[in-house]
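sorry for the late reply, my laptop died twice this morning and i had to redo everyting from scratch. anyway the thing you sent over, i finally got around to it. pasting the sequence first so we're on the same page, its 77 residues, then the predicted structure underneath. double check i copied it right bc i was rushing
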Amino acid sequence: MPAPLPLTAADLMPLVSKLSPAERARLGALVAACGNPTTDADRYAQTPANPEEFQAQDGEDPLAWDGHGWEEFYAPR
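ok and here's the structure:
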């Protein structure tokens, strides 16, 4: 399998143009922080997650998800 070609800024622009202004600003802050010798905790403090970031898209509680398909791992020994 050939190695994928490296992406350029021009390749990313169609995706960036779909972001809201707030998300563009957040992306810019994340990009700016990439070159700084800071810790992950410092980067997170600069652009913390928003409350919607961890919500399920359908409004369902993600902690209530079913575990279908795991029955075989609970077979008696």
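The radius of gyration is 20 Å.
thats about all i looked at so far, will dig more tmrw
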